[in-house]
């Protein structure tokens, strides 16, 4: 498992709480692995563009010669695909990264994108490539329903995702009639799928709160 730098690898080791059953390494100070290692999990190289370059160097020097697999967990990898003048990393300002993009990215097969919004309401931005981007809302039973989907290269903005989730509102929860009667007009209650706690939302305004709104 490869982290961007040694300090992050150390934090991961401490969080695990015991001797890990795999090797920990970093992109900035890579550790030579045994020949039997055939899978490299690269964890979120995104903070610095040099991490993309170091990822490419690791692949070319160690992963490819073994015919091993590199699995990259990175929600912003789509940024590396766009070059040219209007991309996130213009070729003129990042010439070495441009070389990496042209050589490395054609070998990358993107599998999925997932970003969870803890809410309330609980939802997610999801894409299973090459399918469309989807905004999902949590429903009972640990399931999700599709609120919005569209085929496009880049993910929708966070503000748009939140607006879709809040305007749709969460699935309603059964409450006592007296409890519903005590809520102000336009307000309803629901259960947070992650915590099991009841919260309150106004589908007209997009507001949500853990505390009962004042009448």
From TrEMBL:
InterPro entries: DUF1995, LPA3, WW_dom, WW_dom_sf
SUPFAM superfamilies from the UniProt entry: WW domain
Coiled coil: none
WW domain boundaries: 181-215
A UniProt-annotated Pfam family: DUF1995
The name this protein goes by in its record: WW domain-containing protein
Organism the protein comes from: Guillardia theta (strain CCMP2712) (Cryptophyte)
């Amino acid at each position: 498992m490869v982290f961007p730098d040694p300090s992050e690898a150390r934090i991961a080791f401490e969080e695990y709480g015991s001797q890990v059953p795999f090797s920990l390494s970093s992109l900035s100070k890579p550790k030579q692995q045994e020949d039997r290692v055939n899978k490299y999990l690269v964890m979120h190289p995104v903070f610095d563009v040099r991490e993309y370059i170091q990822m490419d160097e690791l692949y070319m020097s160690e992963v490819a010669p073994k015919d091993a697999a590199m699995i990259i967990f990175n929600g912003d990898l789509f940024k590396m695909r766009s070059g040219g003048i209007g991309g996130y990393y213009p070729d003129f300002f990042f010439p070495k990264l441009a070389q990496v993009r042209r050589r490395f990215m054609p070998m990358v097969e993107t599998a999925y994108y997932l970003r969870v919004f803890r809410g309330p309401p609980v939802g997610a931005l999801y894409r299973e490539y090459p399918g469309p981007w989807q905004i999902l809302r949590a429903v009972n039973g640990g399931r999700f329903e599709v609120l919005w989907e569209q085929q496009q290269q880049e993910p929708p903005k966070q503000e748009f995702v939140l607006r879709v989730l809040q305007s749709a509102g969460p699935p309603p929860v059964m409450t006592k009639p007296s409890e519903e009667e005590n809520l102000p007009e336009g307000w309803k209650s629901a259960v947070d799928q992650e915590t099991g706690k009841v919260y309150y939302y106004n589908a007209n305004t997009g507001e949500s709160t853990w505390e009962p709104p004042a009448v």
